[in-house]
Amino acid sequence: MSKYLTAALYKFVSLPDYRDQQAPLLAICVANQIKGTLLLAEEGINGTIAGLPEHIHTVLRYLREDASWQGRLADLEHKESWAEQMPFYRMKVRLKQEIVKLGVPEVKPSEMAGTYVKPEDWNALISDPDVILVDTRNDYEVAIGTFQGAINPETKSFTELPAWVKEHTELKQKPKVAMFCTGGIRCEKSTAYLRSQGFEEVYHLQGGILNYLETVPAEQSLWQGECFVFDERVSVGHGLQQGDYQLCRACRFPLGPEDRQSPHYVLGVSCAHCHDQTTPEQKLAFAERQRQVELAEQRHEAHIGARYTPHQHEG
């Protein structure tokens, strides 16, 4: 069994004292040799941490049971995965205005989110002709996989979604809107935003795509392609098996087998998406970084430049 347990978690809940929680939360994580990033905001908590299993469960118990949280995280859910090596280099607890940035602070998912739909009921919902299906993720994520019939807003960041909604009045041509994202956090917030804009029947996939791929058998699935994830796996398929995508270390775009056949693809240096966007000096720096990575691998050492540099934590 792999040594390190990774826990991804989030919860929208009112935390007016979130600033006071930063130091004690960091202290218990450091005391248990936990690494990763946790975000705290008045609207809740979000993040991913890794460590030895017993230490991860100590931190989770603290969040769910310690009196300082006043029971507000008692039903906090998390998703687990395993890693052979520690996937993070340090522990950070950051204070934010939002735990996932939409740019509309008056939207409160803890009060306004749409209706949860379990993975086993999702196929029936999105097959309903009265439903418009919207993928709330960014364009680089949608590019490698999505649900059949889903609308792609073609956003570069989640903050672009409100403007897209306002521009696309056809969303109200059908009585129901269903939304989905990787792990559930973005679609909770996006459905809350839709409700604030007057949409009445709004639904979202409980636990996101990852929960669906873990729950629904491949032969019954309406998912097409792979799902981008914010860690070293880059993509996963049904059963959450690691997929065929790798990350361009220059621009962080997910690259499939065909992408890696491009003449513009140079391992660690460039791909077809970014080869004309970096200077010769930058390419030399990337090439030197890749050389150091390969030397470290030959010595069976970790190299900080080899690890995945995540986008803002989303799910």
TrEMBL record:
Keyword Chloroplast appears in the UniProt entry: no
Catalysed reaction equations from the record: uridine(34) in tRNA + AH2 + O2 = 5-hydroxyuridine(34) in tRNA + A + H2O
Record domain Rhodanese: where: 127-221
Enzyme class: oxidoreductase
One Gene Ontology term of the molecular function aspect: transferase activity
Family to which the UniProt record says this protein belongs: Belongs to the TrhO family.
Function of the molecule: Catalyzes oxygen-dependent 5-hydroxyuridine (ho5U) modification at position 34 in tRNAs.
Protein name stated in the entry: tRNA uridine(34) hydroxylase
Species annotation: Pseudomethylobacillus aquaticus
